[in-house]
Write a structure and sequence with these properties.
Order of helices and strands: HEEEHEEHEHEHEHEHEHHHHEEE
Radius of gyration: 46 Å
Structural class: alpha/beta
Strand content: 15-25%
Length: 470
């Protein structure tokens, strides 16, 4: 026996498990193993736990989140797969297990190997980095679609666009989306869209199919042209579980063609919904405002004497003067038996009164005319003032609406910057690391560590295994 593995005659269970784990780590390299997935589960942490079996044996396996995120398909119970795994011992329970580093469906090893080669090459060149991806236009007006004219996905996309954003101008760039000439056809359509610059954003879409059917979307030359395109590109290829190289280099990946159409029209759809809400609320608010102003106008009008009321008062004064004159005449007739001298004096006395009454009547008519004109002038001035007030309030309402929209937009941008600042990836980029134990649990206290315990460090760009010395 190798001297490095000499052990005391009596071992504790933990010492035994530690010794066996060291033997496995030192004597077995990672190897490709084929089998059927059983009892597959994916924890909330992102780690995948399952059993790999054949018709004669089974072994437990774990694929940590960092590796599972790179899968180009979704594992499931019953699937035949090939895994690149390290045989280890889970020391806490003494269970033999596989730590899976890569996984691919069985029988497609060459295609998946080529897929991983192209993906790794483009990733090393930085074409998959999120920092180089372009932002989608907030309110696109012209939309380009690269796909086959006979594809069912095209009808799904057009139906979704007509329902959510019927005002969009649609430009079709026909291309083959399956077969040996499909990649060259899509590159020609993409080059045409880049040279014409008719659109604000491009959709590259195709319906579901097998990996062989979708292989044209893994073409390296097509991927490089997508990455070099100055127009934002949304890739909507296959179903939600399908991944292609075009998805990784595109600015945005949508799980399906319909989802791509919904994604590009989401800001427009939300804006239309908001405008519909405004179209319902603003008339109600304006109606309530006009009702309130009408009540105010009625209240103010009640305090003014209408021309009819002024005319009534003048007519009442006139009738009073006429009645008084009539009484004076009747009184004069009753005294007609008086002496002629007295009558003459009486006539001389009454003559000035009659003239004064006539002057009073004329004065009242002039005053009535003045009051009528004054009332009309006041009414027109009040109506003009109310109209100016309504115009002012309308301008204030538009100003407050613009201010509220700007305020909410700035608040959203501030929250987005705060969210990016609090991202764990941002913390890792500043030189920090996350420490995991072999079970994938985060280590936050040194008291939990033991000598010779293996730990996994999550750095910004990779993971590394370390061992506690003391």
């Amino acid at each position: 026996m190798n001297q490095d593995f000499l052990v005391p005659s009596v071992l504790t269970v933990s010492q035994l498990n530690q010794t066996v784990s060291a033997c496995l780590d030192d004597h077995l390299d990672p190897m490709w193993i084929s089998g059927e997935i059983s009892s597959f589960t994916q924890a909330a942490s992102g780690h995948c736990y399952f059993v790999l079996k054949d018709d004669r044996a089974a072994v437990r396996a774990v694929m940590f989140r960092s590796k599972a995120m790179g899968l180009s398909f979704r594992p499931r119970t019953g699937a035949q797969v090939e895994v690149l795994a390290q045989a280890t011992l889970y020391q806490a329970k003494g269970e033999f297990q596989l730590v899976v580093q890569q996984m691919r469906p069985a029988g497609r090893g060459d295609l998946y190997a080529e897929f991983e080669r192209i993906k790794s090459k483009l990733q090393q060149e930085g074409l998959l980095d999120a920092s180089r991806k372009r932002l989608l236009p907030r309110l696109p007006q012209r939309l380009g679609i690269i796909t086959s004219l006979q594809a069912a996905a095209l009808q799904d996309v057009l139906t979704t666009l007509k329902r959510r954003a019927p005002h969009l101008d649609i430009y079709l760039y026909p291309a083959l989306v399956q077969g040996t000439n499909a990649a060259a056809s899509m590159m020609e359509a993409l080059a045409q869209a880049m040279s014409r610059r008719d659109v604000d954003v491009l959709l590259l879409v195709r319906g579901g199919g097998s990996m062989e059917d979708l292989w044209c979307f893994n073409d390296e030359a097509l991927a490089r042209l997508i990455a070099a395109c100055e127009l934002p590109i949304i890739s909507g290829v296959g179903h939600e579980t399908d991944f292609t190289i075009a998805d990784f280099v595109a600015d945005v990946r949508a799980p399906t063609p319909t989802a791509a159409a919904e994604l590009v029209t989401e800001p427009i759809f939300a804006l239309r919904q908001r405008l519909q809400d405004y179209a319902q609320t603003i008339p109600n608010r304006m109606r309530r405002l006009l009702d309130y102003k009408a009540m105010t106008l009625d209240s103010q009008a009640g305090r003014l004497l209408s021309p009819k009321q002024l005319l009534g008062q003048a007519l009442q004064s006139l009738r009073f003067a006429q009645s008084h004159l009539q009484q004076s005449i009747e009184h004069f007739l009753l005294q007609k038996n008086h002496s002629l001298q007295w009558q003459q004096k009486q006539i001389q006395y009454l003559q000035p009164s009659l003239e004064q009454a006539q002057q009073r009547l004329t004065s009242l008519e002039q005053r009535l005319q003045q009051l009528r004109q004054q009332a009309l002038t006041q009414t027109q001035g009040l109506l003009e003032g109310q109209k100016q007030t309504l115009n002012y309030l309308g301008q204030r309402l538009q100003h407050h609406m613009r201010y509220a929209h700007q305020w909410h937009t700035e608040s959203l941008q501030t929250l987005r910057r705060q969210l990016q600042a609090l991202s764990p990836n941002a913390v890792l980029q500043r030189g920090y690391a996350i420490v995991y134990d072999e079970q994938g649990q985060v280590v936050t206290e040194a008291q939990r560590l033991a000598p010779e315990q293996r730990l996994r460090l999550q750095l910004q760009d990779a993971q590394r295994w370390v061992t506690v010395d003391n």
